[in-house]
């Protein structure tokens, strides 16, 4: 066995998002079999499951499709609004989360990526609620996030990782630090999305170096600075911003992924465990033939960065 065979590494993968998939069903999205064929053909071994219902929702149906293409699942994705309290809200949240977690567990995934609630609709831009949480809502959010993370771990053996996301209540540095400082490190970790964090003004390398013990998962993504400037000037919602190409193919945007990957490798080695780094270039909607060439170039670029 080679001396470094057991060294922790980055597990590089991709996601339906990089094929323009945002919804369980949409005529502008590629069929799920085509996504699986192409993500495997682009050189990836790991995938996320994407929106629940896009891929077959039963492990018995999905596992053979993954195995026949040499693919494995890293995580499922859930959407939550944990700053809202109440028994009925918790029950509806848990119904959604447990459904996705059961599928993720059934196909061998280790993680559940949790995206907080949008304060404005990502398609229409309609303002749904105040963009800033009250102190009471922050207390509810942190307590419910811990509760959900604990319950998912106990019932399904999965690690919940919170995904800071544009147009949600957990977006840039201030909100991320507030969430981390207000929650138990043994329960709550982050899915650091380099693109969303840059979109909201954050520095991914600084976050990894400062809060490395709380980084449980990565999404690799870049932002086009010129498009982002327009988005900020016109105060555009995230959906239209994606339509303009705000999330771009590396290495055309920011942040520079080479130092991010280097910091992530140091983190994995310091912890003694592998770290998922999933490419997730928001592209909804896109022409069907666009994703595969981008995916191939992105995989080659990441190999050039040592990943």
Walk me through the structure.
The chain is α/β, with parallel strands linked by helices and 307 residues long. It has a single domain, classed as TIM Barrel (Alpha-Beta Barrel), CATH 3.20.20. The protein is 42% helix and 15% strand. The chain is built from 11 helices and 10 strands. The chain has helices at residues 32-41, 59-67, 87-106, 135-156, 173-181, 194-199, 204-210, 225-234, 238-243, 257-271, 291-304; strands at residues 10-14, 46-48, 72-79, 111-115, 159-162, 189-193, 215-220, 222-223, 247-248, 275-279. The strands form 2 sheets. It has an 8-stranded parallel β-barrel with strand order 1-2-3-4-5-6-7-10. A two-stranded antiparallel sheet has the order 8-9. The longest helix has 22 residues, at 135-156. It is globular and about 50 Å long. The mean pLDDT is 96.
Helix-strand layout with pairing:
Layout: E1 10-14, H1 32-41, E2 46-48, H2 59-67, E3 72-79, H3 87-106, E4 111-115, H4 135-156, E5 159-162, H5 173-181, E6 189-193, H6 194-199, H7 204-210, E7 215-220, E8 222-223, H8 225-234, H9 238-243, E9 247-248, H10 257-271, E10 275-279, H11 291-304
Parallel strand pairs: 1-2, 1-10, 2-3, 3-4, 4-5, 5-6, 6-7, 7-10
Antiparallel strand pairs: 8-9
């Amino acid at each position: 066995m080679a001396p470094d065979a057991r060294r922790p590494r980055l597990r590089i993968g991709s996601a339906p998002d990089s094929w323009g998939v945002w919804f369980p069903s949409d005529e502008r999205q590629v069929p799920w079999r085509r996504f699986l064929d192409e993500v495997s053909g682009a050189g990836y071994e790991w995938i996320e499951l994407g929106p629940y219902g896009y891929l077959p929702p039963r492990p018995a149906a999905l596992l053979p499709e993954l195995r026949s293409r040499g693919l494995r699942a890293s995580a499922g994705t859930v959407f939550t609004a944990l700053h809202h309290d109440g028994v009925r809200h918790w029950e509806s949240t848990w119904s959604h989360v447990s459904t996705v977690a059961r599928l993720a567990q059934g196909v061998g995934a280790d993680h559940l990526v949790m995206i907080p609630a949008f304060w404005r609709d990502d398609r229409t831009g309609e303002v749904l609620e105040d963009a800033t949480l009250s102190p009471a809502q922050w207390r509810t959010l942190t307590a419910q996030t811990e509760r959900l993370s604990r319950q998912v771990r106990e019932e399904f053996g999965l690690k919940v990782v919170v995904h800071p996301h544009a147009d949600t209540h957990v977006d840039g540095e201030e909100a991320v630090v507030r969430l981390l400082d207000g929650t138990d490190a043994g329960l709550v970790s982050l899915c650091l999305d380099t693109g969303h964090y840059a979109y909201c003004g954050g520095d991914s390398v600084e976050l990894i170096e400062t809060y490395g013990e709380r980084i449980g998962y990565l999404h690799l993504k870049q932002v086009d600075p010129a498009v982002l400037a327009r988005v900020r000037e016109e105060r555009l919602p995230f959906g239209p911003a994606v339509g303009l190409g705000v999330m771009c193919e590396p290495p055309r945007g920011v942040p520079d992924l080479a130092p991010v990957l280097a910091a992530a490798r140091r983190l994995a080695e310091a912890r003694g465990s592998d770290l998922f780094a999933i490419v997730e270039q928001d592209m909804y909607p896109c022409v069907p033939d666009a994703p595969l060439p981008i995916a191939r170039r992105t995989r080659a670029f990441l190999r050039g960065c040592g990943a």
